[in-house]
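User: Second chain of the day. Same drill as before.
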Amino acid sequence: MLRSAVGTDVMVVSPHSLASTAGARILERGGNAYDAAVAVSACLAVVYPHMTGLGGDSFWLMYNESEQSVRGYNASGRSGYQATRKAYLGEKAIPNRGARSVVTVPGMVDGWAAVLDAYGRMTLAEVLKPAIAYAQKGFPFSLDQHNNTAERLEMLLSMPETSAIYAPAGAVPKRGSRFVQHNLARSLQKIAAGGRDAFYKGEIGLEIARSLANAGGVLTADDFADHSGDWVTPLTGSYRGFRLHQMPPNSQGFTGIMAAHIVENFDMGNIEHGSYEYYHLLIEALKLSFRDRNRELTDPDFRNIPVHSLINKAYCSKLAAQIDMQRALSLDGAPLGSDTAYAAVVDSEGNAVSFIQSLYFEFGSSFVGGETGILLQNRGSFFSLDPDHVNALEPRKRTFHTLMPAMAMREDRPYLLYGTQGGEGQPQTQTALLTRMVDYGMDPQEAISAPRWVWGRTWGEATQELKLESRIPSEVADKLKAAGHAVKHVGDYDGITGHAQAIMIKEDGSRLGGCDPRCDGSAIGW
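Assistant: Same format as last time:
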């Protein structure tokens, strides 16, 4: 049985052990949680390239001990000036892959600069050193990257510039073989020397824009030059006396608060963990939050989103009353991408960073920006071409975003930092982790390792399935099926249920870290 990592001063968790190690080394060298978090983020962009990268977005939720406050940074990009519905005239939807799926500016690098400028102790050049080394000298090809490359090999081979990096010689690299990314290393070196402007206003952005224009894309150099992220005030809720923090829209973070507020109406002391009642309740609570999310979530600069009404406890109590403990609610929705990387860091001073980043689908758009070595996200492909849709494509707009790092506070100090990869599965796994740690007394590793599920439809699927890990007892699965859930069994520790990580800070100040056995990560504390 896996056990939580233990630390008295610091803790780092991420879905790749090399990224966790890089963060830990930054802390050893005198950096704080913010320096370490950016180092982890940059390393994930190198060693987990099928999940995240410089061509993607990120969201940051941060507690600062000296200020004793929680702030958020929205490092997601807006659509380009030329990203109009007219630009896709004659197409039923924005493509999922290729240059024309690249609709929004990558926000990642801007996020690094913003976090370090506000709270960092080290320079961007210092914290990027581990990522540059991994890109330049290579690293052992991981199991997760191997599996994802094998699953998407045909798609990668359809784009020669992309396959030359990720499937050289037209084949999946062997697990454990050294994987090198020279062009990406050079891009990181330019950012280390020139800061965020080297990406957004310098030759990197210009090269990406040039390559997109040549391939019929809609982003331009002006879109990159004019990009900026935003400091935001996190949304707050509570669960059993713990204060919850989530990112506001365009993040789906409010669904994590809604689900917790709905579940809080039920006495979990009378519901056995792992029982039919446990799974059914959480699934139905999340469906109800998704119903409102699908109706309302978009860029708040383009629509007044009644988010505070949605997370209101009185409203959530009314939703709770709609749950039929014997029958599954039918709910439809658009398919969502699922490939993301969540990580968290706590330092010896008490600063805490909960953050998440993504390319949207695995390998994002599958389009590499010229000679930069940077794989670009396809997040903007989720925009709708229907002018009446809540998430309709318009220039300079942020799309509906699945990324949602979470934090739970006890007496105004961080208690839990938690999150997961998994698109539609993110609020589902977050709610499972929260209830397991708060209601059932599990430590982070127990909560993460316990059997999980994911409900919904990821891209390419025709039905709203309830995927259950095969460790869930057959009698529980049979009851869920009888209640109307479209049950499908998946592996014992199946990556489709997400790659979750969590840190718990106990009352005595010690730190417990949990890392998902479904990924290649590690938790490091001391």
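Residues 16-231+361-382 form one domain.

User: Great, on to the next one.
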